[in-house]
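#onboarding

Welcome to the new folks! Below is a worked example of what a typical request in this channel looks like: someone posts a single protein sequence, and someone else replies with the predicted structure as tokens. Don't worry about understanding the tokens yet, we'll cover that in week two.

Example request:
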Amino acid sequence: MTIAPAYALSGGGELHPDAHSPAVTNLLHNVTPGIVAFALHHLRPLLPDLTDEQWTRIDAAAIALDLRVCEDLSGASIVEETAGPQLAHAPVD
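Example response:
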């Protein structure tokens, strides 16, 4: 999504009426996977009874949605990929 539609959607400028719906759809299409990956990352405190296998599946789903968000949240980087898989979910305190 370019800056102009985002600026217009925020009320900062003119946006052709026929462009509004596709612009919102494009915006949601681009941000939703990251939001869901973020939410999956923070599920552990809410679901303490899940098994390691279940957490592995949740981690895989979060990573498939948005690898960059999972790397940012877990402190992983692309360089560390060779060190093994990183968990997407938040650690239990």
